[in-house]
Amino acid sequence: MSDDTTSAADEVEVQLDPQALEAVIAAPESRFRHDYLEVRGLRVEFDGFVAVDGVDLTVTQGDLRFLIGPNGAGKTTIVDAITGLARCSGSVRFGGVDLVGRPAHRIVRAGVGRTFQTASVFDELSVLQNLDIAAGSGRRLPTLLRRRSGIPDEVAQALETIGLTALADAPAGVLAHGQKQWLEIGMLLVQDARLLLLDEPVAGMSHAEREQTGQLLRRIGEQRTVVVVEHDMEFLRTFASSVTVLHQGRVLSEGSVAQVQADPSVVEVYLGRGAGARGAAGEVA
Ligand SMILES: Nc1ncnc2c1ncn2[C@@H]1O[C@H](COP(=O)(O)OP(=O)(O)OP(=O)(O)O)[C@@H](O)[C@H]1O
Ligand SMILES: [Mg+2]
Question: Which UniProt key words apply to this protein (predicted)?
Fold first, then answer.
């Protein structure tokens, strides 16, 4: 990584374009109107260990749902089960499509996209190439060929949205951590994901990057269905519209931020016996 590239990466840090954000939410509303995620009796077992134990979850379009819970609560496993990466039983429906038992690539085609706790972009490829590949993944060959001559509109728009236009030709490997997460979100947008499941998207981000990411998710969440797994309580308090608290593979509590913070069982799990209501769920690690 050269010094030049590093400084270019630094310069575009935390610059999300408000106009581009407008563009991304300007998609016809009707495409999203009937979208919602409905999970019923979800169960995941690993060699006899029940990691997810009968979870129900309903997330509607326009909601910005946070999934929280102590380490090992089953948050990532739920995302894995919804996206076809963990074998599960129960029912998972999105946009009227039953997802359980479908291979992961079909779930992507049903409009479901996810990010991982560790960013999983192709480091050697440019930002643009990463987006281009994501955009092409759901398309038929003739469309792909027709669009080779220039940058497809949705890719250009995603670049603007995630604030990485100036770094389009830079290898993704030189991006700052936060920028890689934004690139991943951009890849979901060009894939046309209508349900986005984001696993700890702001972990390791600076305060400014978190703020920008929250704004980005809020706008995306106006039309798409967004589920965010997160430990960062300040981020949750600022941006969550609703919260599901998980503990040992089960739903412990659900509601608004204020409701779950006031729930004694949440206080108990996070702060331990005798901690009282003070700072309820306020200092969750
Ligand atoms: N492939 C696997 N094989 C066996 N056990 C697993 C597997 N994946 C997860 N687990 C176990 O399932 C439980 C839930 O794990 P999961 O990763 O979903 O937790 P999490 O809520 O995402 O935690 P964290 O906040 O640490 O990311 C843990 O006890 C974990 O050890
Ligand atoms: Mg996890």
Answer: ATP-binding, Nucleotide-binding, Transport
